Amino acid sequence: MEGRRKVARSGTGAAPLIKKKRVKMKQYVVTRPLYSEDAFADEHEKIHRHHKTVRHHVKQYFTCDLKRAKNAALSLLPFVGWMRIYQLKEWFLSDIVSGVSTGLVAVLQGLAYSLLASLPPWYGLFTAFFPVIIYFFLGTSRHISVGAFPVLSLMVGAVVTRLVPDEGPPVNITGFEGLTSDEQRVMVAASVTFLMGIMQLAMGLLQVGFIVMYLSDTLVSGFTTAAAVHILVSQLKFVLGLVVPGLSGPLAIVYTLEKIFVQIEKTNVCDLVTSILIMVVVFIVKEINDRYKAKLPVPIPIEVIMTVIACGISYAFNFRVNYKVDVVGRIPVGYESPMAPNMQIFGQTAVEVFPMAIVGFAVAFSVAKVYSVKHDYIIDGNQELIAFGASNIIGAAFKSFAASTALSRSAVQESTGGKTQIAGLLSALIVMVVTLAIGFLLEPLPKSVLGAVVIVNLKGMLMQIREVPYLWRRDRPDCVVWLVTCLASILLGLDLGLAVGLGIELLTVVFRAQFPRCSVLANITGTDIYKDRKDYMSIYEPEGVKIFRIPSPIFFANIDFFRGKLVEAVGFNPLRVLRKRNKALRKIRKLLKKGELQMTSKGLLLTSSGPIEESEDESNMEDLDQPTDFKDLPVQVNWNSELPANIQVPRVDVHSLILDFSAVSFLDVSALKGLKAALKELIRVEVEVYIVACDAYILKKLHSCMFFDNEVKSSMFFLTLHDAMLHILEKHPVNSENTKVCEKVITTATIHGNQCNGVSSLRSRDKFVHVSETETKF
């Protein structure tokens, strides 16, 4: 402890197969005392920090002054912040171009996505207007385009078709009396959206925006891929011109496909040809937009162009009458009067609405985060929840359905030069013009065109399936999450699929923490670095020393796994060894008492030549777990030597064990008890235990929980692994000449090539000490 530690480190790689220019490695030299945690604490005074109490936090939370009031107002109305820095000359023209482009796309997608929600098309225009206005004032993202999102629209449609099916009577709900089927569906969609907004607003006010962190990128990718499959199947009836009732629930996609293929011969050829033509042209032009986006001033709005062309052709040739094509039909002029949500629908749909609230926020927040990083500004997850909650509540009052953000529409708003949500406001004005003045121009638009536009925009989500091979090669648990989430969402429905995926994801986290990859470390020759002994050739392992590392927190679920792996690492079960030693002591005492065993200059000598009577004393069995007691014996027993009277005790070749706690972030009470029991078992069989690199928070917790006693002492804690190793080498010097050389190498840590190659490095893998059945009896 009083000695000084000198380290000179450098590195050279293994001899390469191809001759490379040798790079001179940098070196550093450190000279300092050898520190245990106690010695370091004695020498270096810590700063005493005053931690705030709960009362102080509560008082601070409810304290209000002018500055806090101003900050609160700015956080609730983020548009004030960016309006103050708005550069009119540089930004306004870009926002105009972006707003017009986004507005045209929003009109088309609003009409298309309302079909996914099983609603008349014009209600999608309401979703592209009211939520955008509210988000302008409350949202923190400057680039996302708020409105209908296909996955959310499909989830709303599943609830709508469950309560108001295409075939059969609707669910008995007060308020449905005297309403048409479409009006009932609008009431369901609006009530669902209102409840979704309440949930999002409540989560925002309660500051639980962090909940989105539990939806990993892998889970969201699998979920949205499954949603894309559902959307594709749901649009086939429009592309083929078939009458297929909307279905919901587990295996709904299978039953839908069955109904489509049963009547496949009734396909409307005009719808099919129109859809294929639209999809081919839109796909090709979108590819051109992607390839030449750096050269194009704005992306070619091919969906809008093809929609206008399709409308003109449909009107000119009267597709609805001549070819029996299903068209959008009458679009009412203006907005409908607001309506109150139906409380009974709340009770019928609450379980299905909660996943919608989470998915809607998660997708929008993910997209907003991408653009905030790209354009260097900050978004607030909790304020985003408030913004979307308020947008959906106000929108539902005016009969719009669930709003989030569509990836393609947001890409249009950002790529066409949008700088702020003024572009979103202008897009809402374009939608309003269509709703109030020129909506009638879209009445001849075939629904198959809308279905084709929806399908071709699914490319990005469907292509996520390419992630599976990558995940399988890189991280198989993540791949399992992706596959299970995707398959469950396809077969069971999006709401149950999301729940299953989240459950699998949490299980993988639990399993990774419960069954971590523990390892036995060894010193890399000539350095103060310690790595997994299975991974390196040039290593040094002092005889009788084991270094065990657990790379995870230790808690109630993995403490038994930790103890089992620790037994594997040391090569023996310390509790079993302790019991055998105490049994051996009982027998030695009994033989001494009978005179069959006597103390001589050579040690204990068996005087009886006859057979030793085998007997088992079952009394006081709990005493076998106590430390071995030699106080009434004339000599202390050397357990690794040959014992008299054929007494057999497992040999223990380990005298020191180092536990590397550098990756242990916390311990709970159950783990503290299990850890203490494991340490006592090792100490009682004369194995010195050292714990290194322990977090200061854990060390403080150990002191506060009365972890230390006369057996488990704070002096076993060392600052670093190398400090503990030097302490052990000083306490247990090795006799072999070759090993002395290696001890000098590890102590001074200077580079001497492969000086330790002649030393037995204990390359055997996880040796186990087995005691035969004859050894268990005396």
UniProtKB/TrEMBL annotation:
PANTHER family: SULFATE TRANSPORTER (PTHR11814). It comes from Salvelinus namaycush. SUPFAM superfamilies: SpoIIaa-like. GO terms for biological process: transmembrane transport. Residues 535-728 form the STAS domain. It is a multi-pass membrane protein. Pfam families: STAS, Sulfate_transp. Keywords: Membrane, Transmembrane, Transmembrane helix. It is found in: Membrane. This is Chloride anion exchanger-like. The chain crosses the membrane at residues 92-116, 122-139, 146-164, 210-232, 238-257, 269-286, 298-317, 353-373, 385-402, 422-442, 480-504. GO terms for cellular component: membrane.
